Amino acid sequence: MLMSVGSLAAMGLALGSVLGVASRYLAVEENPIEAELQAMLPGSQCGQCGYVGCAQAAAALAKGEAPVTLCPPGGKATAEALAAKLGVKVDLSKVSDSGPQIAEVTEEICIGCCRCMKVCPTDAIIGAAKQIHNVIREACTGCSSCVDVCPTEALGMMPIPVTLQHWTWPKPASAHN
Amino acid sequence: MKEFALMMIGAALVNNVILARFLGLCSFMGVTTRVDTAAGMGLATTFVITVSSMADWAVQTYLLDAYGLGFLRTVTFILIIASAVQFTEMTIKKVSPTLFQMLGIYLPLITTNCAVLGVALLLVEGRMGFLSATMFAFASSVGYSLVMIIFAGLRERLVLADVPRLFAGPPIAFIVAGMLAMAFMGFSGIATS
Amino acid sequence: MSQSYGIAVAAPHTTTSNNPGRIMTLVMLALAPATLYGFWLYGWPAFFLWAITIAAAMSGEAFSLRWQNRSAAPVLQDGSAILTGWLLAVSLPPWAPWWIGVFGGLFATMLGKQAFGGLGQNLFNPAMVARVALLISFPVQMTAWVAPAPMFSAGAPGMLEGLLIVLKGVPHSFDAVTSATMLGFGKTELSRGINLLESLPHAPALSFIGNRPGSLGETAALLILAGGVAMMFLRIITWHIPLSMLAGIAIPAAILHAVDPSRYLDMGAHILSGGAMLGAFFIATDYVTSPNSPRGQLIFGFGCGALTYVIRTWAGYPEGVAFAVLLMNSMTPIIDTYFKPRIYGRDSKGKPLQTTN
Amino acid sequence: MGFLDRFLKTPSWGVHPEDHKRPAADVALRIFPTPERIFMPLNQHVGGMARPIVMVGQKVLKGQLIAEAQGNISAPIHASASGTISAIGEVTAPHPSGLPFKAITIDSDGADRWIDTDPLVDPFSAAPEEITKRTAAAGVVGLGGATFPAAPKFALGKRLKVKTLIVNGGECEPYLSSDDRVMRDFPEMVIDGARLVMHAIGATEALVGIEDNKPEAIAAMRKAAAAFPEVKIRPLPALYPMGSDRQLIKVLTGIEVPSDARAAETGVLVHNVSTCAAVHKAIRLGQPLVERIITINGGAIANPGNLFAPLGTMIGDLFAFVGLKEAPSRLILGGPMMGTPLLHDRIPIVKGASGILAFNAVEAHVPDAGPCIRCGSCTKACPMGLLPLEMAARIKVGDLEGAEAYALQDCISCGCCAYVCPSHIPLVQYFSHAKGELTAAERTKLRTDATKRLAEAKAARIERENREKAEAAARRKAEREAAKAAAATPATTEKQGVSA
Q1: A24 touches B: beta carbon within 8 Å
Q2: Which of chain C's residues have a Cβ under 8 Å away from the Cβ of A169?
Q3: Interface predicted TM-score (ipTM) of this complex, two decimals
Q4: A108, exposed or middle or buried, with CB in 10 Å at 0-12, 13-18, 19+?
């Protein structure tokens, strides 16, 4: 009895101390992954993911509380990059990548209230009070914040128009035979 | 010398840990989706099996047998294995954080990988000398790694196949494992001749 | 004038008339002489077993497809199920009972092929999967060989008798003809402590035209070789796998035979007996389960040959081609990954070449 | 010797499609009369779209500049007929999508009056830069199909001190014979153009590679080049894709262009025979690129052959000229191996259009795709040494990165793999799809980065504005305080004491 207790205790002590020493020598400085994740997010702080901003979303991602598919403006590409970084698998077919979208002003209804300009995270809407506003396509991130504040529903989202340069061949239909 | 070679071939191929003894199946199914992950797992497990078997042998011979503490065998073995796994985990985290991430939960789970305890118990049962015990453990784990890598290669191709819904996922993986086991049966009889 | 052409079809807008059905047909034609010779050699039972096996393979394929609500006819037309059944049939003992053929044929196409999604998706050679499954499950039936009893010769079973042999088993009057293949005989004698130098003179005669016990496809080595060479000329297969596989058997055989002729059979015996020829030209060369690059094929072929030799010589089974092919099939994805052809403008590791000036 | 030589030199890659070049190639060149209306697209080249410099209603002469180059890689556009600009609008692009692009419409006056040309009298004593400048001004682009502007390529060759000019007379695409026709009918122009290019880039030799299925072209070119020892005619085995520049360079010089380098970096530059002829016209005659020889071929054409036609002509007008036997089942711009499928015939021909094929139902028949049997035909045919079957399998399941790891980006879309595939899998479409998707992903990433910069800029702006507001408020407050202080001085001193 004493022997068995003693031997087990001794072994535990010995192995424990070996591991203790090892942990000192093999210590790794945990790389704060949060910063890296934040760098991958668009940074427009649009809040579509449900978090206040991209930094908070990155923190949630790092803790594993949020799915990598959380960022609608980032689309598939961002989800893929995040998944690769976090080493998780992701079913990208679920990501609603209706193609990146951008906002568009219906000029007939715009009253030039300037509300959309104020909420736009990237200053992509130009115009002045009582003037019809316009969206700079290249700068719009498709966060749709402006759509929510527009009092006349003059703002809507539309897919980025396909151009000759952006057109790609569709995937061949896989014949099952 | 010839006995050593035969014993090692026997341990690695004929009585393969996975395909003939059906040990370590959880990692066999769990971390064989990519060849490099499977290779990393194989390497880690090889290290754990070899080191812990050596330690187990020593404890068995000089402690348990010497003082008649045979009933403590499982506990002590697990203690040693757990320590070896801890050590491996720290090393991998230091050396290859990517591999650490890919192996995920399966790395600490090497502790409960029955292949590790299984090999240790087998060599105790076999009443082997230190050298042959070490060789046996090493060969067994090489056999384990080999099958892990082969199976991962097959699964990498399997994800490209149009497997019918009925068989998709684990079923076809088990069918492949079965066929692989069948192929390995070709080796049977080698070590005994 | 203006006309719409619907959806655009990507280039190229022209193609060859080649198709999988043509390839399979040519392979079967290449295999036909050896098979016909086998029918003649082993009589009607062999023919019936062959027909039953192919029918089973085709039914297995059709059943699997119908189960998935896919039409079976167009898939069966590609001939791959027939070829699978055919290859399995020629690797069976020619007088095996009908249910061996049925079980094997169904196993080959249903589990060996359709479970993976059909043509091109399977990881193991379906015919060899079925053969190994049969060998493991029914070792007695799978190693009961008959001495040749050429069709129409005295003592050979007639057509009806042949059908009965396949359906009801070999009657007692034919008991005398059961025999062993040379590999099996040598192995049995060795295990009894009789070395090859003493046992071989009593072994079934070995001959290049195959007048000896064995499966349909293994006896007529010359005809198999001719079929294989024909396929090479038709560019259906390349020389890499057959040659390296035969080398894989021949090299260790030659070395070990030189070291100890009393324990190890000579090179000729190894190459000409068993499924070595059939395996090298018709089975290991299966597109789906063999590597793509020439280097990979050389490794694959040599591996098949060497493993065949190892299994024949040291393991429990007298014949190792099927096991060796399955084992190398399992290595194929890894070989494919690590032995890719060199890309234009890159070195063999895939890094861009250095600019010279 | 000859046989062994050919055996050893014949590359291991490539395919031998039936060439279908004759009888169209042997029919004498016909001149297509200028149609009533011409649509000059503004983007007939790789690079920036040209900017129109004419107005609707303006009268132009043939060869007059109507749109100028924009950016470093671009080319100007010239009127291909004399007449009136009737619109600057959109026309369907020769592109599988059928999407429109910008074009200038010219209503021809039927006179075909040229502008006053300004030929360079003695180009070989002029500075090389002069040749490059004039080539650029004439809007010459690579006429083999790539349509890369010629002048920047000259400048690159000059800068990298290219010694060897390769003149590409391969024309390995079946059905096409426009380069063949150029070499047969205008060999002096090609040779002279090649020498001008050599002068422009400072090359010391020119190798003219011509496939040996064009013996007439080889003979004509040999005769024309006889006087110039630095221009060597090199017959090549007829093998598709011999006309691809990397393959041509390897066969002619043995040099293998590294995958991440341009050909010029290895000391060679490739130009098409038609491009050379265009350079000759630009320098010796002062004529900009406004016309080209184009092959009209295919089973649906009544009188197939080569036409000398102004750029911007509608394909339908060309068909009316050569006659259709039946309604085409498929329309292709370029050859059958790499050509662009067109959705209809109201599409203008552009600088890079070497041929228009109208296939009948038999030619257009594409067997249904079957499963891959891993036969490896595609890997044997691939001139780049890629593994098309592995890439396609990965793309099929959506693993684009996996395909990229198999060097998808090295694929030249030559179509050999899909041509030989016994299961008729549309491999090239898989690759084009994947390349497009990967480019789109790359664009999204760039966009995300750009967004981040914009968001940061906005944050900075808001901060600055707030700070300025705060400062302004503080200033105003200080002023108010000061005013108050002026009103009650003793209080201020007290306050100062407190704040100190």
Answers
A1: no
A2: 10
A3: 0.85
A4: exposed
